[in-house]
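Good morning N.,

You mentioned wanting to compare the apo and holo forms, so I went ahead and generated the holo version with zinc ion. This is what I fed in:
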Amino acid sequence: MQKALDVLYPPQCITCNATVETMNSGLCAQCWAETPFISGLICDCCGVPLPGEEPDNELGEGRLKCDECLNVQRSWQRGRAVALYGGNIRNMVLSLKHGDKADLGKPAGQWMADAAKDLITGKTLVAPVPLHWSRLLKRRYNQSALMASALSKTAEVALCQDLLIRRHRTPSMDGKTTVERAKIMSGNVFVHPRRKIRCAGRPVLLVDDVMTSGATLQACAEACKISGASRVDVVVLARVAKDA
Ligand SMILES: [Zn+2]
Ligand SMILES: [Zn+2]
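and this is what came out, ligand included:
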């Protein structure tokens, strides 16, 4: 039966639309090779790859931090990223954000469910980083909300799409320093007054497309903690590495 379906609907690579016989994670061989998936030793707080081998024993595992996470106070506990920002992932992020390619949200969310599997429990509440309403009107969808939806379905955990609200529309963060980004985002996110009850006493997993300085996730995690979340973890599609 699957064979017959394949003839009718031959599998297509999710990013270049090439028709291929064998795919890896929905990608053709070439796109897969050009996608900087993260594996091996990682920072437990932001998911960035770390130099060195995977520790042999359980001790120390899940406790390692990169220099940036050691130097910056993070208001969330653990973090994971599917890939480094670059190559095919950069194309995916931009297509989701500006290219009206909403269909990429589903595979991205499925990858994120896998990357964050160690952080998810039966009680986890998944919530996307919000867009300001004026941006949402313009773009018509929040790319992080699409990923959060696919992630929660894949991991079979609860989802709250409107847990967080952005107070002000913020200027573009491009070219801003970590300190400037933190200043812009600080206090700019709050928990929807009618959704407070959903995150009180519960672990929250925040979902975003890209983590650069972490300022946006920081503001979101702070808001969740003020509203009584028992812990906050984060997962992103792409992590911008400092020297990348
Ligand atoms: Zn492809
Ligand atoms: Zn880190």
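The beta strands are 79-84, 125-128, 158-159, 164-166, 189-191, 203-211, 231-239.

Happy to go through it together on a call whenever suits you.

Best,
F.
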